[in-house]
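Translate structure to sequence.
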């Protein structure tokens, strides 16, 4: 049994690579939604998806089974807590900091670092 010539295998490999490259470079017909469309979508999601959180009757988290915490006692109703805060890297960096010598600052006490 005779094996294929080497140039046929190389040509087949080049063909496969070119086919994959062309498939990867293909464009998409989808367009990016506008800010108005994104706002409308967010409103629809907020209307249809309930806000899930720890309500007054919610059970404690699954990992809390070994805790001796009495979740019925609290100073602040759980409904007053809101999720949020800045996202990861949401606090902007100080691009142009201004330094002041410690001797020139009037609000530092003598023993502060």
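Result:
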């Amino acid at each position: 049994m005779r094996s294929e010539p080497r140039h046929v295998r190389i040509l087949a490999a080049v063909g496969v690579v070119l086919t994959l490259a062309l498939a990867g470079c293909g464009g998409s017909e989808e367009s990016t939604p506008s800010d108005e469309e994104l706002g409308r979508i967010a409103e629809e999601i907020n209307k249809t998806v309930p806000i899930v959180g720890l309500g007054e009757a919610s059970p404690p988290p699954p990992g809390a089974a070994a805790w001796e915490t009495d979740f019925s006692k609290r100073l602040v109703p759980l409904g007053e807590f809101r999720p949020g805060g800045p996202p990861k890297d949401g606090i902007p960096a100080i691009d142009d900091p201004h330094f002041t010598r410690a001797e020139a600052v009037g609000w530092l006490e003598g023993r502060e670092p």
